[in-house]
Amino acid sequence: PVSGSYNLSVASGIWYLGFEIDPAFGYAAAEHDIEIKVGENVTVVRDLKVIRANSIITGQVIDPLGRGVSHAFVAVSKTSFSGALEGGTFESMIAEAETDANGFYKVAVPAGTYFVKTFIPPELGFISAAEEKVTMAEGQTLTLNLKLRKAEFTISGKIFINGTTTVS
After folding, report:
1. For the chain, how far is it from start to end, CA to CA, in angstroms?
2. Disulfide: which of 58, 66, 78, 146 matches 106 by Cβ 3.0-4.6 Å?
3. Which has the higher per-residue pLDDT, 64 or 28?
């Protein structure tokens, strides 16, 4: 914490390094999923870069009737979550937060363009809010309320293993 140094013991091979910083420090990781190749009996030195995260996205996650939803997860990414599901690439989340008892959240991000998405437990009976694209200026605070959608239809079926639905 004082020197900013780190040390990880790993086996030889290819590793993907990522890191998080407590948002209270006002910084975010400048790079994500860093590929590191480690040879047998080799020490690798890899410095990590951070950038100032002094732009704020804040708001409330609400249900279709306008009530705040607690324990919803709000994620901010450089790339669209929906694009990743359609075979695109996905960059790791830049910031994340869980809503409080009244559905409020707050995340600190560096200036830039982001995609904001909600994730909620399916037992709540809602579907995530539509993904929002936002562009944040240095030091900007943006209020972004996210409205969950009502689950109107059901997908059901059976799970088959080796041609049978019975699992022992």
Report:
1. 49
2. 58
3. 64
